[in-house]
Prior knowledge:
This protein is an alpha/beta fold. 41% of the residues lie in helices and 18% in strands. Adenosine monophosphate binds next to strand 3, strand 7 and helix 6.
Amino acid sequence: MIGSTVEKLMLENRDTFLIPAANVANVMEGNPLEHGLLVLSKVGYSKIPVLDRQDHFVGLLSLTAIVNKMMESTKIDSENLSGLTVADVMETDMTVIHENWELEDVLHDLVDAAFLPVVDDENVFKGIITRRELLKAVNRTAHELERENVLIPKVTKLVLQA
Ligand code: AMP
């Protein structure tokens, strides 16, 4: 279990952990798969969230899944994507976290995933938490722990507030 003082230090900038939905590249589950390939190529990410028309989170679309569909024994043929939609190849077995997430869960889940989709009670997509943002907080906390003159007054304040 993470100590409450370290947790408070880590979460000082809690708001910065989330990349809000408006800034996250996504595709719709009903989009043609060729469109999904174009979006992934354009944004330069290998995996992005898939939403339904009501902005619910429904899965993840990866470049790997699309390339696997295009692969034949000796070549890659984009014609193999014709007639398929994003929903046909999206991954649905992934960890999703609630917008009222706990640090312990995020730390644990980001070991195995580069990012975590964040949803509300109705499964509406709120954004993502990436390993990069989490590592920034770890980095900041690690540096603060070394700076005794900063840490002791800060920890004293956090303990008094508890
Ligand atoms: P990062 O930790 O910034 O490298 O991001 C990890 C992964 O999160 C990326 O490889 C993407 O799959 C996803 N990601 C990060 N930022 C965005 C974004 N703005 N839109 C869509 N996906 C993103």
